[in-house]
């Protein structure tokens, strides 16, 4: 065959696990958006519920907000279609971040001394720090991502991510501490604790433990960790074939199998559609260096839950899926060209498939 479908790949993966004497990954009925993972223990479900309360807490200057911030609670930005989801793009919402950094790897300056790399858009009173006007400062916009299934992403083994290195030129984001970055558009964070602690700081100006207790931080982490992934819909077989035929699946790897000491996260099939690797996306999409990523490098965007998005790419610049695909440059050029060369029927089938994810 010219291609292998995602379901066929799962059959092969499952057969390999049986031959190795390992337990098969489990498939359970899909919860709806915003619901917890199935099979949580009563204690884990209680932590999910308590964590949602902290996630939705609106901070004030008296309770630790600011002095510079983007919004007053996590839920104010992660709101579509429910709490834990992506950001909206309404005129009154502050659901996009302004980032800035200077230079390029290996001497990337994330401008921390000047208020970066996230330059907040609201203040409790003091003047907002302005983005420095150096010649080599680059500015980027970031749309708020949905958090559904992030616990499963955290549970993907490092070796499974590393196994895809080199495909279409992708490389793992090996951080200074030796861990692999997997969260953030530039793969800057290796785990949810680091990712969420940084979000409280950079988005709300709320510091742990002075303004948010370590216990409440842990509850918030568990809320995100136990958020179920988007419900899995029936597969459009023909569209799936086009997804493989164009090479989209080379970087947007459809599935991984998790490993975790938490039973509800262990040996689960996660339909992520990402290799979690850094790819050079070309000069047209390049903005700023961050973490270990160059200006042009971005972590492959997970496509799970794509059907709920109305704008695409890291900054929401693309107003349609067609536009997002065709703006792929650098290591994504071949897939964009393959999409453009499809017959109309095949292109429509691929888009229909993507809109079902």
Q: What is the typical, i.e. mean, pLDDT?
A: 91
The residue ranges in which pLDDT falls below 50 over 5 or more consecutive positions are 1-22
How many helices? The count is 12
- How much is the radius of gyration in Å? 20 Å
Taken as a percent bin, the fraction of beta residues is: 5-15%
Instruction: Give the N-to-C terminal Cα separation.
Output: 24 Å
| Strand arrangement, major sheet | 3-2-5
The arrangement of helices and strands along the chain is HHEHEEEEHHEEHHHHEEEEHHH
- The residue fraction in helices comes out at 25-40%
Structural class: alpha+beta
Largest sheet descriptor: 3 strands, antiparallel
The geometry reads as globular
Strand segment count: 11
List keywords for this structure.
11 strands, disordered N terminus, two-stranded antiparallel ribbon, 357 residues, 3-stranded antiparallel beta sheet, alpha+beta, 12 helices
């Amino acid at each position: 065959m010219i291609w292998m479908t995602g379901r066929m790949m799962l059959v092969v993966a499952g057969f390999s696990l049986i031959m190795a004497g390992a337990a098969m990954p489990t498939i359970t009925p899909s919860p709806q958006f915003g619901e917890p993972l199935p099979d949580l223990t009563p204690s884990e479900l209680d932590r999910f519920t308590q964590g949602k309360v902290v996630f939705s807490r609106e901070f004030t200057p008296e309770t630790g907000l600011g002095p510079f911030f983007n919004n007053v609670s996590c839920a104010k930005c992660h709101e579509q279609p429910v709490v834990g989801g992506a950001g909206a793009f309404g005129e009154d919402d502050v659901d996009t971040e302004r980032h800035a950094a200077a230079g390029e790897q290996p001497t990337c300056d994330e401008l921390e001394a000047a208020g970066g790399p996230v330059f907040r858009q609201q203040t409790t009173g003091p003047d907002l720090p302005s983005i420095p006007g150096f010649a080599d400062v680059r500015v980027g916009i970031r749309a708020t991502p949905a958090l559904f299934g992030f616990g499963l992403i955290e549970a993907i083994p490092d070796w499974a991510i590393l196994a895809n290195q080199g495909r279409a030129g992708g490389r793992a984001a090996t951080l200074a501490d030796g861990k692999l970055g997997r969260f953030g558009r530039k793969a800057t964070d290796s785990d949810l604790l680091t990712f969420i602690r940084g979000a409280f700081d950079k988005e709300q100006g709320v510091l742990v433990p002075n303004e948010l207790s370590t216990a409440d931080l842990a509850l918030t982490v568990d809320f995100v960790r136990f958020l179920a992934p988007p419900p899995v819909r029936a597969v459009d077989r023909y569209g799936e074939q086009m997804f493989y035929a164009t090479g989209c699946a080379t970087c947007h790897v459809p599935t991984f199998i998790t490993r975790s000491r938490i039973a509800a996260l262990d040996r689960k099939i996660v339909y992520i559609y990402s290799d979690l690797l850094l790819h050079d996306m070309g000069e047209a999409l390049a903005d700023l260096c961050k973490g270990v990523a160059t200006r042009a490098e971005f972590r492959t965007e997970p496509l799970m839950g794509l059907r709920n998005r109305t704008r695409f790419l890291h900054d929401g610049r693309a107003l349609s899926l067609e536009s997002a695909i065709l703006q792929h440059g650098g290591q994504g050029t071949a897939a964009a060209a393959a999409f453009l060369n499809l017959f109309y029927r095949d292109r429509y089938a691929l888009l229909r498939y993507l809109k079902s994810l």
